[in-house]
Design brief:
Pfam families: AA_permease_2. By secondary structure, this protein is mainly alpha-helical. It has 16 helices and no strands.
Length: 449
């Protein structure tokens, strides 16, 4: 063993399938099912469960392809940029990482914006901008200090969120059984105003609710038997949330078949008050705020880790790799993400979630393509099963993800295209006019404490 390997040993493999699944559920956040319910209902013309089913199909195909790639590149931690870079070339891998950065960089903004929207609806006398700042400042300070969230806290947080959702579903079904809401058991899936365009637009935005499952690939080095565990965990997490989102939206539309809300960004409070009065409204609000704060804390920490890595490896300016000598955290990256959250003063939840999904769908499409390219180059299996697993399912993912990408709003496509163009220009700078290979990200290198 070399001195370097002795000083920097590999991560210890301790995570089982159940542990990885719980982490995936915590990262995606169960209460997102209620946080964005009004937006999906409105965009889908009152057929939110069907929109979620379309998104679920896309996510299952994509999770399958991620799992295939994770089973091939299981020796070390990786993600979409690793898989695309290995299978389709480092330059395309770099651009995939750049598109993922769009997600990581702006997801905290959406998380804080959702939380601020609910607090503003409950306390309208206080400007929404004040609530956004109230999320950003303590979250940024805690991440600079380096607060650690334990596995036990993750279990408790997930359990509390699932409890709130279970109560909401039970109260909603009771309300539907005792009141004439004008709905039938099947009307939430289709109505007279249902259109393919509306469903596609809603499904494209609904994908925001699933973002986070792909991060499980970064746990490869700490997982027992990652070749089998990571693919299975990703599919379990995606299917779990798909069933959750469809179920919650179905019960929501049983009691509220229309698309009009006092505030579409905080529709969950209106629904909670309808079925459980002011007390349950307060419980849902507390759950949403706690969930959004904890989610924002974790996502800002993860996003700053990505910026730190890209700065250290020369992909982004090296200043982003500065680590505080006192707290041993990437202060510049953390603060930059906090400042980005101030964009929430000028955009709404729907717009911000949409342009984030531009990066997600682009990366998902490329991962699906990577699985097909890997099969074409290496022929890892024979027969119908291999063709279905390596060609048919990933190709379905390419088609559905690509269609949903094109279904995003014009603003999202414009912002996403500008971001991609900036990535191409930056790649040209890094590679001296594309004459050199781009720097390679190494997320499995030593991390800041």
């Amino acid at each position: 063993m070399t001195t370097e390997s002795a000083a920097n040993p590999g991560l210890k493999r301790t995570l089982t399938l159940s542990s990885v699944v719980i982490l995936g559920v915590a990262w995606v956040t169960p209460l997102i099912a209620l946080a964005t319910i009004g937006i999906i209902i409105q965009l889908s013309n009152g057929t939110a469960p069907t929109a979620y089913l379309i998104t679920l199909l896309a996510m299952v195909c994509t999770a399958w392809s991620y799992g295939r790639m994770a089973s091939v590149h299981y020796q070390s931690a990786g993600s979409a940029y690793t898989y695309v870079g290995e299978e389709m070339g480092p330059r395309l891998g770099f651009l995939t990482g750049w598109l993922i950065l769009l997600d990581y960089f702006f997801i905290p903004l959406v998380v804080w914006l959702i939380g601020a929207a609910y607090l503003s609806a409950q306390f309208p006398i206080i400007p929404m901008g004040a609530w956004i700042v109230a999320f950003i400042v303590p979250t940024t300070l805690l991440n600079i200090i380096g607060i650690q969230v334990t596995a036990r806290a993750n279990y408790l947080l997930v359990a509390f969120q699932l409890l709130v959702i279970a109560i909401f579903v039970a109260l909603s079904l009771g309300y539907f059984a005792s009141n004439d809401t004008g709905s039938t058991l099947l009307s939430p899936f289709a109505n007279d105003t249902t259109t393919i365009a509306a469903l596609a637009t809603a499904a494209a935005v609904a994908a925001y609710s699933f973002i986070g499952f792909d991060g499980l690939t970064l746990l490869t080095e700490e997982t027992i038997d990652p070749k089998r565990t990571i693919p299975r965990a990703m599919l379990i997490v995606v299917v779990f949330f798909g069933v959750l989102f469809v179920g919650v939206s179905w019960t929501a539309q049983l009691i509220h078949p229309g698309v009009e809300f006092a505030s579409v960004d905080s529709a969950a409070l209106e629904l909670a008050r309808m079925v459980g009065g002011n007390l349950f409204n307060a419980v849902v609000l507390a759950g949403l705020i706690v969930g959004q704060f904890a989610c924002g804390l974790a996502i800002q920490a993860g996003a700053s880790r990505l910026l730190f890595t890209m700065g250290r490896d020369g992909t982004l300016p090296s200043r982003l790799a500065y680590v505080s000598p006192t707290y041993r955290t990437p202060v510049v990256s953390i603060v930059l993400i906090g400042l980005t959250g101030l964009v929430g003063l000028f955009v709404d939840v729907t717009t911000s979630a949409s342009f984030i999904n531009f990066g997600a769908f682009s990366a998902f499409t490329l991962v699906n393509l990577s699985a097909i390219v890997h099969y074409w180059r290496h022929r890892p299996g024979q027969g119908i099963g291999a063709i279905l697993g390596w060609i048919v399912v990933p190709l379905a993912g390419v088609l559905i993800d690509g269609y949903l990408l094109l279904s995003l709003g014009a603003d999202a496509r414009i912002i996403g295209s500008i971001w991609l163009a900036l990535g191409v220009l930056w790649l040209a700078v890094l590679t001296r006019g594309f004459r050199q290979p781009p720097p390679k990200l190494a997320l499995d290198s030593e991390k800041p404490d």
